[in-house]
Amino acid sequence: MTSVLVTGGAGYIGSQAVLALMDAGFAPVVLDDLSTGLREAVPPGVPLVVGDVADAALVERALRDHRAGAVMHFAASLIVPESVARPLAYWRNNLAGTLGLLEGCVAAGVRRLVFSSTAAVYGIPEVLPVAEDAPCRPINPYGASKLAAERLIGDAAAAHGLSCVALRYFNVAGADPLGRTGRRRPGATHLIAVACDAALGRRDAVTVFGDDYDTPDGTGVRDYVHVADLATAHVAALRHLLDGGGSATLNCGYGRGHSVLSVLRAVEHAAGRPVPHRIAPRRAGDPPAVIAVADRVRALLGWQPAHDSLDRIVGDALAWEGRLAAPAMRALA
Ligand SMILES: NC(=O)c1ccc[n+]([C@@H]2O[C@H](COP(=O)([O-])OP(=O)(O)OC[C@H]3O[C@@H](n4cnc5c(N)ncnc54)[C@H](O)[C@@H]3O)[C@@H](O)[C@H]2O)c1
Ligand SMILES: O=c1ccn([C@@H]2O[C@H](COP(=O)(O)OP(=O)(O)O[C@H]3O[C@H](CO)[C@H](O)[C@H](O)[C@H]3O)[C@@H](O)[C@H]2O)c(=O)[nH]1
């Protein structure tokens, strides 16, 4: 059974990937500093090494102790406005973190890596849908630091015989369809989580940032991808590398866009009640529309999404959020 080191495995996407690895017969080991992740997101029986991925000696030790054959690297800081306010912290965590990880991998002789990248590397796409070879012009320190990490990995790969699949995620949402994990941090900012909060009465209304974009209904359009499909894309990328496949950079989306208003309608439908919303000015730095050219990931990895539907994404997000809300609501009753 191949052991896989999962950095950031106590976080939202990493914990879903840990489950997907276990479902696929791999043995995950989590390395996480618990800065935004939570210990309870790591399933019982999965080893958890608490520490900083920038610590190359710690990474090397974890890889050797657990005889890891590959790494999935999720650990990062990822809140866009925070990256604007605290660029040095973001560059340190996302670039120095990746550097420490790579040093540890080279020292331990581990040469296969799946890296969490983001559509934020593209900035404001000139052409839609956006393909992997489109120009990368990030518009915030988060996207810039992730792009720099991609390039650092590319240099290390060339010199040290590493192979890496970088997956550029589009808008990740939803929760584990079996209810085992999901977003755990309060204070949601992503649209689907915010809309679920409003549907569950945990906030008054959803603020719609702009209805005057050049899109079909004037609101922002995004390519939402189910977190469980993203996790199986990681497993497919891992298998590709273990089978001797070469490095690749792949968009991870479904290739379809949904507007803010259509997301709100989907949440209303799933919740069976209205989601109040108010129109506000555009949010700074928001592109009008971001949609993936999503063919390459399917062709190269044979990835077959199982939850490619906005209703599924929203339904699973709502079920998870409702479950999280239940104890608090019972306490209030
Ligand atoms: N959530 C999204 O919409 C989205 C979109 C595109 C890309 N991504 C990428 O996916 C990855 C995971 O994001 P997420 O949404 O699960 O976020 P998250 O905050 O839930 O998970 C990040 C995890 O990494 C850990 N971590 C952070 N810095 C660390 C460090 N220096 N050492 C060890 N552990 C550290 C945190 O404690 C947390 O468990 C990130 O690399 C992010 O850039 C996320
Ligand atoms: O309360 C809200 C929250 C969001 N939106 C709108 O909903 C859309 C999606 O916004 P999110 O905040 O959910 O997500 P972003 O598109 O801003 O960003 C996410 O997707 C990007 C790729 O498209 C990157 O991956 C990035 O890291 C990730 O946070 C945007 O049009 C935004 O203006 C609202 O109207 N109200």
In short:
Helices cover 41% and strands 18% of the residues. By secondary structure, it is of the alpha/beta class. The N and C termini lie far apart (48 Å).
Descriptive account of the structure:
By secondary structure, this protein is α/β, with parallel strands linked by helices. It has 2 domains: 3-173 and 225-252, NAD(P)-binding Rossmann-like Domain (Rossmann fold, 3-Layer(aba) Sandwich), CATH 3.40.50.720; 191-222 and 255-332, Alpha-Beta Complex (UDP-galactose 4-epimerase, domain 1). Helix content is 41%, strand content 18%. It has helices at 12-23, 56-65, 80-85, 87-108, 141-160, 191-199, 227-242, 260-271, 295-301, 310-332; strands spanning 3-7, 27-32, 48-50, 68-73, 112-118, 163-169, 171-173, 206-209, 221-222, 224-226, 248-252, 258-259, 277-280, 289-290. A 7-stranded parallel sheet has the order 3-2-1-4-5-6-11, with helices on both faces. Helix 1 links the parallel strand 1 and strand 2 (27-32). The longest helix has 23 residues, at 310-332. 49% of the residues are buried. Mean pLDDT is 95; it is low at 328-333. The protein binds nicotinamide-adenine-dinucleotide (NAD) and galactose-uridine-5'-diphosphate. Galactose-uridine-5'-diphosphate (GDU) binds next to helix 6 and strand 8. Its cofactor is NAD(+).
